[in-house]
Amino acid sequence: MAFSAKNSSGKRYTQTALADINITPLVDVVLVLLLIFMLTAPVLQSGIDVAIPHTRSTATLTEERMVVTIDKDQNVYLQAHGADKAINIHDLPALLLSHQGPEAQKTIYVRADERVPFGAFATVMDSIKRAGITNISIVTQPYEK
To answer: How far apart are CA 70 and CA 125, in angstroms?
Structure first.
């Protein structure tokens, strides 16, 4: 589409309208965002490195629940709302009571490294029971065939 106009000296000139959209900056921004998401996704999904014991009978987790993790150094972590947080074992009952919503069933999953002594595991189980949670599931992995 062309427009005729006069400049300040009285000469006529033709001006054309820009009808094309330059998408190069858009492609640059999209590629940068894609790169950022590709680099941050593995960081968001990383958790506590725990060698979970193998058993013959396992059940698949269908819903997200609170998870207490004990790593090989006997550090205790509470995973609530997708984030692992290192906690003191003495604060565990109060934290479990504060993280439970009104609709939440009193169910918790315990992930323990297979090298954790039974005494540390029993201490965590006792803390969970002091919070009033009686439905405790122990996370294991199935044997590979």
So the answer is: 11
Long-range residue pairs from 85-93, CB within 8 A, at least 24 positions apart, any chain: 89/123, 89/124, 89/127, 90/127, 92/68, 92/124, 92/127, 92/128, 92/131, 93/127, 93/128, 93/130, 93/131
What does the CA dihedral 129, 113, 76, 104 come to, rounded to 10 degrees? -50
Per-residue pLDDT tens digits for 11-60: 777 767 667 788 899 999 999 999 988 888 766 655 666 666 666 665 56
CATH classification number, 54-142, choose in 3.30.420, 2.30.29, 3.40.50, 3.40.1050: 3.30.420
pTM check: above 0.70: no
